[in-house]
Amino acid sequence: MAVKFKMVYADEMKKRGLEHMLQPTSNSNAELVPNQTETESSQVTIANIPSLGEIPPQNLGMRTIPNDFNPADIPPRNWIINKYIQGNYITLIAAAGATGKSIFTLTLAVSVALGKDLLDIGTTVQGNVLVINNEDDDVELDRRLAGIFNLYRIRNHEVNNRLFLKSGYGKRITISTKNGQTMIRSPDVDKIIAEIKRCDIKVLIIDPFVSTHQEQENDNSALDEVMSYYRQIASETGVAIVLVHHTRKNGDESDRFAGDVDSMRGASSTKDAARLCFTLSKMSEKSADKYGIDWRERHQLIRLDDAKNNFTLNAGKPRWLKLESVRIANGEWLGVPRPYNLPEPATSQKATAESKEHTIFSYIVRGVLALNGNEGGAVIRPELKKQLLKETDNEKSKIDKDLKTLPNGSSKARRVKVDGTFYRIYQVDGTHAKAAKTIYVIVDQ
């Protein structure tokens, strides 16, 4: 029986392509395995043979540094928005409810589609963008886009076939699903991958992340599996993924938790899987007092802070944005983020006055740009007043009062930064006593 078993063993090893491990030997003490084509006097040694059914170990695939290693040959990181969104990796942007994260990320999408740094946060490379929003229907997405286009003077054709939208309102787009009690990868994953490849998508925005799975938010193991599906999408396509997430409710003092990665809701495996994490938070009453911001403007200000960055040093200071009140063609108003220059701390009444002046001059400059384009130019006051009534929710009396605060003469022009560009603004008297004044907005080189 022993000889028969050894013959079967030898045949099995040959079937498995392991006959090289059956080595002939002249050692009289070696274990004998007769071959079917040989006499019983033939002897072979069985050396380091694994058990039946066991797979022999493979190489680990290690590498070493070659002698001709040259750091200059290393490809640069594939930043889509410098220090914020990188190809092949996941970015997490988290905020409490009603902070403006959806309109913020939609503005990011438009920025990438245009290849323009609309929010003044970092150099932006043009690329096609897919936004999947499971909370808003197509009408609401159009409403928000109309506000963005209005504020930044964008024409439809500039983003056609560059910006792609998918509303999951009513039928969510998911990344994982359930088979009984077992989590499995959703069929939507293959659809997303196919669309990314078909449309050459460079950035995928998911709003909100929590809507794409059915797991408990605090289940580390389950959320790690969900994030692995996102990593598969990024790895297979090279797309940059932006997940819109939530922070814990922190009340009116939410900016105390700005830049705190641990303020993000749910399992730690979620933020651990993301290589870049940021928070959005509203300005607190304490911060408003510090910078001399009045109560009305305070509720329009939000800050963007680094919470985790595995590729670059933490910026160390926030980027401030203002949710500008914008009226779209159907008569509705909504807030659209734009860059905001925070004044120096209000250590005196002068600092507070400068902050208010900057706020007034900024919206007047925007009115001139809406009429004349980004290069500015001259506009008579009555025409500008009509435009400001369309673009803002300010009353006529306030607009009149604000226009009167503009400096008279080019020698007294004020310098204002709007959408990343510096302008000088001033007004001049008309040619006679009853003639309307002319407002000038000139790009400051």
How would you describe this protein?
The protein has 11 helices and 19 strands. It is elongated, with a radius of gyration of 32 Å. The N and C termini lie far apart (96 Å). Helix 4 (188-198) packs parallel to helix 5 and helix 10 (381-391) packs across helix 11 (396-404). Mean pLDDT is 86; it is low at 1-6 and 25-42. It has helices spanning 2-15, 101-114, 138-152, 188-198, 220-237, 268-273, 285-291, 295-298, 349-372, 381-391, 396-404; strands spanning 22-24, 44-46, 79-81, 85-86, 90-95, 128-133, 163-167, 176-179, 182-185, 201-207, 240-246, 276-282, 301-309, 319-327, 333-339, 376-380, 414-418, 421-428, 438-443. With 445 residues, the chain is an alpha/beta fold. The strands form 5 sheets. The protein has a 9-stranded mixed β-sheet with strand order 7-6-10-11-5-12-13-14-15, with helices on both faces. It has a 4-stranded antiparallel β-sheet with strand order 16-19-18-17. Strands 1-2 form a two-stranded antiparallel ribbon. The longest helix has 24 residues, at 349-372. The chain folds into 3 domains: 2-46, no CATH class; 79-339, Rossmann fold (3-Layer(aba) Sandwich); 349-443. Strand 3 (79-81) and strand 4 form a beta hairpin.
